[in-house]
Structures are given as structure tokens and as C-alpha cells.
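User: TolC family protein. Structure?
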Amino acid sequence: MKRNNKTKQSLLLLVSLWSLNITAQEVWNIDQCMAYAVEHNHIVKQRHLEADNYRMDRMKAIGQFLPGVSGNVSAQYNFGRSVDPETNTYISKSTFNNGYSMEASIPIFRGGSLINQVRKSKANLLLGKAALQEARDNTALETFQAYIDALYYYGTTRLAKQKLAESDSLLYKTRRQETLGLKGMADVAQMEAQQASDAYNLTHQQNLYETAMLTLKQKMNFPIEEALLLDTCLLEQSTLEQEQLAIEHADNVFRLALNCNPVLKQAEMQKQSANMDRKISWSSFVPSISLYGGISSSYYKELHQTGYPPFHTQFENNFGSYFGISMSIPIFNRLSGIANMRQARNNYRIATEQYEAQKEELQKLVQQAVQDREGYLKESIQMEKKVASDSLAYHVTRRKYEEGLMTSLDVQNNAATLLESQTGLLQSKLTYLMKCRLVDYYKGQDIIRNNE
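Assistant: Predicted structure:
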């Protein structure tokens, strides 16, 4: 009875461990991999901190409109010759001085530089957000490409296994027919060579798949030692099921990309920031006006002497305040003002040219992506038809070979043609999916689709 209980407990333990192992091996789809990569990417984290610094710069620019307030407290012991604050004459006594003051100042006019600093900080803040978005998008796109490569080599490995299984089966039948006198040694040798070639190809494809998986894990910053199971449902779908092509012109996609592309947004904000620097440089030629004021009080006493008014009395009697306005007029600054203004103007022109160049580059990328999407869709549809025809031709040739109506070379040629067609279909289908996602990205849609 005890032995049966122990056996049941052992079985329950094994079942629980097996279920935990199955649960731990989660299947990762392409959006989960991209989200994981973005979350753990170091460049994305750096861009996030840089965007926060731009936010602090904007806070400082807004704070320049507020008054600046400072306070001062001093205490001083004098021994020997010093100035008596009551009579303003020199005395030779030991004294103690205690002073308090507070001052405030506020800028009234700075030639428009303060408001332009705020506008520049706003442009830089948007620049930081666009740089952060670019880092996220680039990480997601690189992960997408690595995922597609891993799926491709997974598919080629599966095709290589099927090809090797076909060769093993055909080699077995050829050997059987050779023993019956229906085939010769040349046919057996040819099939053995084909089987060895297919075994090598399988090993080669498995190595490429392992390399692609390593690259994907590195792009994701995924632990190398942990297993990563990919969702292979995309390989089972036909091109018609995946078709997302809509009748739209590349110019329409480009117009949408102008409003949402983070790279172009950065160039636009750099142009706007350079324009604000150009306007700020003008302020060095105009007067600046500030308003200031303050209060102060003090306490004085000779050491080892009595009869001085108490602290609160002196503090009230010595209390004073002041108020004023100041204006600074630039007269000659050793040509630095005119040089800074011309440099700012040149920087603005440079930023304008960079923006126009980036816009042209974006248009080329959009046109290429739309053209590639349409081209790979057509290729995938035609390759599906070709795979169906090559598969039929291979099976007919194999049957005729088994009947002695075809040679082994005919079988090898048809098998190689079928494998090439299947590989081409796999590549064009996966590339079409990637181009569809890229075109949607240029249209303003998120690369990572969490709702799918």
C-alpha cells in the first residue's frame, strides 16, 4: 500500500514538472518579440533619458520669466582696527556684526530672447520625443527582420528534412529493386550520393537556423541560454490568406509619412531650433532691461560691553529696502555679435537643406517599399502556382522512375527544382509580409500590434 502511494506521488510530481515545462516554453509571435526588444534595448533607454533632459531644459527656459530671489546672512567678529557702523569712524575695539539681506530681480526685456528660448526648448523636446520614437521603431524593425530570417531558415530546415526523408525512402526502394534485378548499381550509387547531399544540406540549414536564432536573441537582448520558441503559423498560411494589398499610390503613403515619420520629424525640429537660435542672436544688438529690489537689516555690538540696544530693536531700526531698474546697452562686443548672428543664419540654412534632403530620402524609401510590396505579392502568387506544378512533376517522375521509365538523374533534377521553388516561395511570402508591415509603418500605424 505504501509502495502504491509512493508511486502515485512520483507520477503526480512528474506530471506537474512536465506541465510546468510546457507552460514555461511560451510561443513568441513577432509582436511579442518586438515589444520585448524595445523594452530591453539600451539605446531606447538612453533616448528616454535624453528626452527627459529636454523636458528639464524647457522647464529652465520657462523659469527665466520668474523672479530670481536670493538671501544672505553674515556674521563677523572684528579684533583691532575696524569701522564703527554707528559713527562710520575707525576704532580699535573688538566688535561683532550680524547682517541680513534679501534681493530679487526679474527680467523685463531681453530682445525677445526669453520667449525664443522657450520656443527652442519646445522644439528640442519634440526632437527628443522623435528620437525616442525612432530608436523604438528601428529596434522593432531590426527585430522584425531577424524574426523573418529565423522563420525562413526554420522553413528551409523543414524542407530539407522532407527532402532527406524522400531521399531515404527512394534509396530504400532502389536498393530493393537492385536486389530484384530491376535497378543497377549505378542507380543505387546515384541515390546514395543524393541522400548524402541532402543530409549535408539539412545540417547546413540547421546551422543557419541556429545562427539566425542567435541573432534574434541578440537583437532582443534575450537570455542566450534560454529557449525561444517562435510562432510558425505564418509558414502555414497561403499568400492569398495574408494578402493585405490595397489600391493606393505611393504619393498618398508619402503624404501620410510626412506627418508621422520620426526621422523627418527630427529634421523638422532641428530646423525649427536653428531658426530660434537665429532669432536669439538678434538680441545681442538690443538693450536689456531688468527690475530689482531688496531688503536688509543688521545688528552691531562691542564685545565685553553693555548698554547696546537688543537684537530686535536694532533689527527694526536698521531695516531698509531698495528698488531699482537697470538697462544694459550693447555698444561694442568685439564683433562677436555679428559673427554669432551670421553663424546662426548659416546653421539655419544647413538645417533647412538637411530637412529637404531627408524628405527626399523618405520619399524614395516609401516608393521602394510600396513597389516591393506589390512585386513580392505577385511573385508569391506565381511561386505558389509553380510549386504546385513542380510538385506534380516530381511525383510523376518518381513514379515513372520506380516503374523503370525514368533515370535517377531525372528524379534528382525534378527534386532540386521542387526544392528551389519551395524555398523561393518561402522567401517571397515572408518578404511580402515584412514589406506590408513597413508600408503600414510609413502610413502612421504602429509597428508593434498588441491587439493582434
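Residues 66 and 369 are 51 Å apart (CA to CA). Residues 71-109+288-329 form one domain.
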